[in-house]
Target: Alanine dehydrogenase
Amino acid sequence: MIIGVPKEIKTNENRVALTPAGVKEFVKRGHTVYMQATAGEGSGFTDEEYQQAGASVLPTIEDVYEIAEMIMKVKEPIEPEYKLIKKDQLVFTYFHFASYEPLTKAMIDSQSVCLAYETVEKPDRSLPLLVPMSEVAGRMSVQQGAKYLEKTMKGRGILLGGVAGVAPAKVLILGGGVVGTEAAKMAAGLGADVTILDVNLARMRYLEDIMPANVNTIMSNEYNIRSLIQQADLIVGAVLIPGAKAPHLITRDMLKEMRPGTVLVDVAVDQGGCIETCKPTTHENPTFIIDDVVHYCVANMPGAVPYTSTLALTNATLPYALQLAEKGWKKACRENEELKKGLNIIQGKVVYQAVAEAFDLEYTSLEEVL
Model:
């Protein structure tokens, strides 16, 4: 198979979908890999390293899309890329379709095959290609939250861990999944007073067992959220419904109940956000303020630490990508239920129910297409 890896063009996105080590794995199996020039530079990989691993380097993004049978990316295609995607071309990347209708419509029109990292799912319902970036984003949410709590950043002027004689900051985490767990570990490690909200009692029992004493769990409901946000200094939105739009747990009217300088970090923003007032921002302009509450809503948080993120992501995606290249997408997805669940749009048909429901589109079962 011919694999193409374009350079990411989303603002301040420095990750790359394939490392030189990954290229070598494809090439030794007889596949051809084309990298766009400088695609890996942001993550610390040079064109020479890719060439030494066996890839060919093409000068432009158009060249890569034109020649490839499978496109491997990190972030969803953005508008300048829509017209480059060809009929029947396999695109393997994060899509987060349910949060953005124009992208969904563009991929339907392209007649391509869209296999989304974020909906590849194991039998235990874990999401193996989302986990590594969720780990990075969860840890970064606290790192960034601590920074924006500083007064010079318009925050409350609070040190997350406090000092002797001064209470630490209160951190409220909405969701006890991978993002919430990693955020709690970071916040607790810095000495904050941490509360995790979730609706799954079994998960909360597990978190109670593994977390240190400065982490508490409380059942998530509107009453508890309204009560806790009044004292919280940093609130991390870490809610995910696979493939679907995140529910708004914090609504516009709740901002009035927060103290000025409270910081909100919505990690779910690329899936629509679980905080109603959040809208996607970039690393260039990461925050905005509503009702004296600081909103940090960068949609590609792991892009700020691309070396770590690229290695973590490609460790997870490469085994699946090799299956797609070896067998072709149809056979690979028939034989691997995990990959099969990653299929979202196939040649103009929406085959992932949550995406169809998000925009009231016609849903086609995978059995009809495969």
